[in-house]
Structure formats: C-alpha cells, structure tokens
Design brief:
The protein is α/β, with parallel strands linked by helices. The chain is built from 14 helices and 19 strands. The strands form 4 sheets. An 8-stranded mixed β-sheet has the order 7-8-10-9-13-17-14-15, sandwiched between helices. Strands 1-6-5-2-4-3 form a 6-stranded mixed β-sheet, sandwiched between helices. It has a 3-stranded mixed β-sheet with strand order 11-12-16, with helices on one face. It binds ligand BES, manganese (II) ion (MN) and zinc ion (ZN). The site of manganese (II) ion (MN) has 4 residues, from loops.
Length: 488
C-alpha cells in the first residue's frame, strides 16, 4: 500500500474518506469543535442518536464538506494498542464506503512517532487477507490503495518517512507469517518451508542452511527424524543467520516449532482437534518473518534462526509410544504420546542453538492445548530461566498488543516427566501441561539464558479480531522485533 505523509488539517486533506480520531468523552469537544458549523451540527445529532462516545474502535460516519468522514474513537488515546484498534476500525468503515484513498487526520497533540506508527500498523495489519483459494471474485474491491497520514504540523522529513518504511516492513513480515500459517499443509511441507527460507536468504545479509535425511542422522537430530518417520515428507532442520553490516556484540538465537501438520501421529487426534493443525508451524513462520524483516530494518544484532520442521503423521514408519529418542546432547527421552511431538523436534533445535553460545535463546511454539486452557486465545504463556529476559519480553509484548503471561517452571514438577526407562518422558502427569512441556525443553539448553513462548492460543484465530482476520495471526513477531531492536 502507498503511504503518504502530509502536514495539513483534517479539513484540508483530500481523500475518499477522511478519518478523524476522537477521544472518549471529548467526542464533540476535540477535533469536532473546529469543524464548520453545519458539519458540527450533523455530527452532534448523529453522535446522540448512535450513542457515539469515542470508545476505542467505535466509528461514526458523516458526510463532510469535501469527503466522507469517519470519526473513530481512540479511548484515552494513551496506549499504542488503542490506536491500532482505532485505525483498524476506521479502515473497516472506509472499506464499506469503498474508499480508494483514505486519510487519517490527527491533531498536533497526538502525532508522536509511536502513535503514528501504531495507527499505520493497525491499518496495514487490518488490510491483510488470504484469498489465494477464492474463485468467486466478489465486487473486486480490495481496500484503499493509498493512505495519507496527516497532522497540521507533521514534518514530512526523512525520520518520519523512515518510520513509515519500518512499519511497512514489520507488517510485510507479519503478512508472510500469516500466509504461511494459512497455507494448506499438503503444500507447505518441511521442504517447502526450507525453500521459503532459502528464498529469503538470496537477498543478502541472511544465510540459510537446510539439513535433511542423512545429514540429520549424521548430526544426531533424532527428534526431527522420529517425528517425521510416519510421514512421506522428510523433516528438516533449517538454520538461518542474519548478520548486521557492523559486527554486533549480541548474538540471539530464535527457535521455531515447524510441525507442518499435527495429526497427533499414532496417538491420533480426534477429527475436530485436527481442523486447525496446519497452524502448528506458527513458530517456524515467526522465524521466517523475522528473517524477512531484519535486513530491511537494518537490525544491529546478529540473529540465528533455527526451525525444526516435520510433519507428524501416523504412516507405516511412524514412531510408537514406548520408543526412546537419544538426543545430540546425550539426553534420552521416552515417547509415550506421539502427539506431544513439538517438544521432541524442538529439543534438536535447542541443542544446536545452545552450541553457538548465544546471549539468549527465545523459542516460539504452538506447544500445548493446556496453555489455551490456562490463558485462552489472546495471551501467550512465557516461561524460562532468566527473569530479566522474561520481563523485557513481557514489556515488549505489552507495547505490541501481544500479551505474554509468565507461568512458573516448578522444579517439583520434574517428577512428572521422569521416565522409568529413559532420562525423561514426553508427557507430564495430566496437570500443568504447559509447565511440564517447558521443563522438557529445559533439558536441552544447559545454562544459556532462555525464554519459551507457548503461542498455542494466540497464533491462530477462529474469529476476526481487531486488525487480525480469521486464521494465522503472526503473533509475537512484532514483540520480538521490538525486543531485538531494544538490545541493538
Ligand atoms: N500442537 C499441539 C498443541 C496445540 C493444541 C496447539 C491446540 C494449538 C491448539 C501439540 O503438539 C499437542 O498436541 N500437544 C498435546 C500434548 C499432550 C499430548 C501432552 C496437547 O496439548 O494436548
Ligand atoms: Mn501434537
Ligand atoms: Zn503440535
């Protein structure tokens, strides 16, 4: 989408629809007070009739002098998330008017860089759609083609322009992740994820290596091999490295779960539970999205991405309950439930991530249904061994509108994953499934600082959310980009 910046008042901007932000409780005294009298009267009448108070995301459409106008509530206008949601709602209202051009008019008081960026982020993310498999081309309207951000004293300078470009790069990365998650599993095999990774690496600053078959055996990546054994599609370990132009002091490892379909394996899932299991590679999509964005953002930290990719199927070679996996770091794990496959493949990638001695490891995985029971679909679980890292990630998540909630790594629950034949087993005692999964992962990271994001709930949405249509959400990508930016 074409994004323009101009330093003009709401009344001077030219667009099919002009969006004006209003604060809750000031819906008639803020920007509206400066409208021409006739328009002010019609807004007042309509606001009364529709009980428009400026609540976040509520809209009021009126016919302006030169353009359709949409008033959108931004609540108290303080939190970036309010602006994302407001901008997204405004985009919806503009779309119902089939606007080809949209302008977002802000007051001078409300265009600090973060607010401008958040509003644009909301607009761009709300514009995402996955229509590759639609044949009925409705009326052909695909949303506004250009957006103008304006405020009377807005400077159209290099800094503001750069901020727009960064926001666009972030949203492009989120769109890539959403596309990958929404893609059907029969197409997005582990090999397909590998070719996406290799494609991203062709564009400089990012390198990529893919290990499959014999190489996985040589490298003792037995978790990926075990989970892939029941599938016709070979598993893969995908490693990507982003190196900044100037040598960096920090090196961060990001690990993503890339189960391209989770049938449960021989511990087969019921049909209903399988319906959304194409989303089980959301952690991998996150790693790919970061690798797409980092070079564009010219990030200053070195980032190593590891994707453990496999399809979890019950084919004739499938691993069986009771099998034991011997990992690269010497740890042995008994597989009692083949549906707890995420931790099995992540263990391989965590071993590799630990070996490069990074400053920290952050993994993202749609790991446990238990995390959805605990936190629902809007909040991800976070667990780890370094409180400073966890606090920093939670803070970035709050800013990004991607809430993370910490769960404890309860030492006593190690008992739950003790095995009678191997070092550990891949299922816990029935309670606290998110914690026992995280404790399993901890066996593979040694002393490295580490945070684990269980994104099972928020990675995929079965109903439209603010600035997020149904399907893959791209959750935690913006949080991690903000975190990487903060340590650079
Ligand atoms: N991919 C699932 C977790 C999941 C469930 C993600 C629902 C998103 C929505 C994971 O591989 C899984 O099946 N976990 C099992 C673990 C259990 C067998 C210990 C679960 O949560 O039921
Ligand atoms: Mn599973
Ligand atoms: Zn899974």
């Amino acid at each position: 989408m074409n994004v323009k910046l101009i330093g003009k008042k709401a009344g001077e901007v030219v667009a099919d629809v002009v969006v004006v932000a209003v604060r809750e409780g000031h819906e008639l005294t803020g920007a509206v007070a400066r409208f021409p009298k006739a328009l002010r009267t019609s807004v007042t009448t309509r606001a009364k009739r529709t009980h428009f108070k400026g609540k976040v995301g509520s809209t009021l459409s009126v016919q302006g002098e030169h353009a359709d106008m949409v008033l959108v509530g931004v609540g108290d206008g303080a939190a970036a998330e309010h602006w994302r949601r407001a901008a997204s709602a405004a985009r919806g209202a503009a779309a119902s008017a089939h606007a080809a051009t949209l302008a977002l008019a802000l007051d001078d008081a409300e265009h600090p860089a973060e607010i401008l960026a958040a509003a644009l982020e909301g607009l761009l993310l709300a514009g995402y759609s996955f229509d590759k498999y639609r044949t009925k081309k409705d009326d052909g309207y695909r949303g506004p083609k250009s957006v103008t951000l304006s405020a009377p004293s807005l400077k159209v300078d290099a800094r503001n322009r750069a901020s727009v470009d960064r926001t666009q790069a972030v949203c492009d990365a989120v769109a890539l992740a959403r596309d990958l998650v929404n893609e059907m599993s029969t197409l997005k095999t582990p090999g397909h994820l590998a070719s996406v990774a290799l494609g991203l690496a062709r564009r400089g600053r990012v390198s990529c290596e893919v290990w499959q078959g014999e190489r996985l055996r040589r490298e003792k990546l037995h978790g990926i091999l075990a989970v892939s054994a029941g599938s016709r599609h070979p598993g893969a370990l995908i490693k990507m490295v982003y190196k900044p132009r100037r040598r960096s002091r920090s090196r961060i490892a990001i690990v993503g779960k890339g189960i391209t379909f989770d049938s449960g394996g021989l511990s087969l899932k019921p049909a209903k539970s399988m319906e959304t299991m194409k989303m089980d590679m959301s952690g991998a999509a996150l790693v790919l999205a970061l690798m797409k964005a980092l070079p564009v953002l010219e990030a200053s930290v070195e980032v190593h991405g590891f994707i453990a990719a496999a399809e979890n199927m019950p084919g004739h070679g499938a691993q069986k309950p009771g099998d034991v996996i011997r990992y690269r770091n010497g740890v042995t794990a008994e597989v009692l439930n083949t549906d707890a496959e995420g931790r099995l493949v992540l263990a391989d990638a965590l071993c590799l991530a630990t070996e490069i001695e990074p400053d920290c490891i952050i993994d993202a995985a749609t790991l446990t249904g238990a995390c959805m029971v605990a936190l629902g679909t809007r909040v991800a679980g976070i667990l780890g061994n370094d409180q400073e890292l966890i606090d920093a990630l939670i803070a970035c998540g709050t800013q990004a509108g991607e809430p993370l909630w910490q769960l404890p790594l309860v030492e006593d629950y190690m008992e739950d994953i003790r095995s009678s034949v191997a070092d550990i087993k891949n299922v816990g005692g029935g309670y606290a499934g998110t914690i026992s999964a995280a404790l399993f992962l901890r066996s593979f990271i040694g002393k490295t600082k580490w945070a684990h994001l269980d994104i099972a709930g928020p990675a995929f949405t079965e109903k439209p959310l603010p600035y997020t249509p149904k399907g893959g959400t791209g959750f935690a990508i913006r949080t991690l980009l903000a975190y990487l930016d903060s340590i650079g």
